[in-house]
Amino acid sequence: MSLSIDLAGKVVLVTGASQGIGAQMTRSFHLADATLVLNHPDVGTTRTDAEKLAAELNQKRANSAIVLVADVAKADAVRAMMQAIRERLGGLDILINNAAIIRDRTVAKMSLEEWQSVLDVNLTGVFHCCKFALEIMREGGAIVSMGSIAALQGFYGQANYAAAKGGVLAMTRVLSRECARRNVRVNAIAPGVINTAMAATIPESVRAEMMKNIPLNRFGEPTEIASVALFLCSPLASYVTGQTIEVNGGWRG
Q1: Is the pLDDT of residue 1 over 70?
Q2: I need a labelling partner for 144 at 20 to 30 A (CA). Which of 1, 35, 232, 242 fits?
């Protein structure tokens, strides 16, 4: 007996899809035969990275990935992105809220802009994407939003990030109730420290202290987050909604 996840015919939107966990999410859902929409904010190299990834996927399976630009913090941009998805692909089945930024600083030193910009992308951006995605999402769809261990542990210097991610977890519980009548399941993932370019900037002394809290004695890999997202959006998780899945190697700091 074999067991596999088949998402053929499903349209999946991944926000912040050009790099890190978002790029791996995109690859994993593509392996399950879904059609991918790669969102990016057109900042730095995100456009180039997203287009390169889409080309990679389309080479493997023709017409299986498109790229759409939108700053999730801007409601009009998100609304336009969803309209484009409906026009080009007929609708949406799965939304992965992955886009996020970090502006770490203690509360005493944090500027008002550093506070607001993180809330705008990491929390309000998720609200925008959920609100407008639900207008084009088909019956039986799924939403997975990225939380963070920061929302549960309260890391030093991350008041803005932790507050935003904590809000995402609360919103997930509310949305799971509101969307149940359409059989749309809504869940969140709270990753621990994952081996991405962002994690590579953590000083070695801090990394060593973090490792002391992880029973598995290693940081996670993007594929391990993507696999949980894939499960949550598949028929295997048909009775799972309103949950936050911690994927952190057993961290109990």
Answers
A1: no
A2: 1
